[in-house]
Structures are given as C-alpha cells and as structure tokens.
Amino acid sequence: MVIAYSPVLQAGFIWNDDDYVINNRSLRSVDGLARIWLDPSATPQYYPIVHSTFWLEYQSWGLLNLGVVLVNQEKFSDAVDIIEKISRIDPNQTNAIQNLAYTNHQLGQTEKAEALAAAAQQLQSR
Fold this sequence. Notes:
Largest sheet: none
Helix content: 55-70%
Structural class: mainly alpha
Radius of gyration: 16 Å
Order of helices and strands: HHHHHHH
Strand content: under 5%
C-alpha cells in the first residue's frame, strides 16, 4: 500500500484546503482553537471536530502536506482493518458499514466517512 500511495507524498493541498487549512487563521493559535468551537463563523463550515483535527495537525507540522498525507493514510488503514474484521464475522455487514460512513459524513466526520466508504467498496469488489 505504501508504494501505491507514494505519488501522494509529492502532492499539494487540494479542493477546499485553501479555506480549510492554508488561509484558516483559526489554526494558528490556542485562541483560534477556542474560536473553532465557540464561533461558527471562524471556519468555512461549523465542523469543530474536523477543524480541531486540522488545528492539531497545523500545530504539529504547519503546512507540510506530508504530515496530512501520513495521518490520512493511517485513518484509511484503520478503516480497512475494522471493515475486514467485521466482514469476517458477517460478510453481509458491508452495507451497514457504508450506512455508518454516510452517517459519519453527515456528522462532519468527512475523512472517516470517506475512508470507511472506500474500504467497504474495496471489500465488496473482492
């Protein structure tokens, strides 16, 4: 999986990362972390858990995309492990997992939802 994922290590930020990460002043300070939770206008969308994760990542490695890539790779690997374990118990549960992914997405857990959905699709294609 590392080899397949390696081109991403040179990739930059994409989609809405300008608003969510690069230009998001809330990620720069402890006061910003408080604003993420207390001021719905502090971020483009009010997803305090997601933006708190971005805050923690920004505090850890700034705008170095490699850190974001590694964290997302770990999330995806965890999701695949969970889905594989569940599918061994009951192979029919992959639809339930996809529903869980959709629910997580609606709650603002976009990254987890995408990882769960991708892992469920991967299992179904086997």
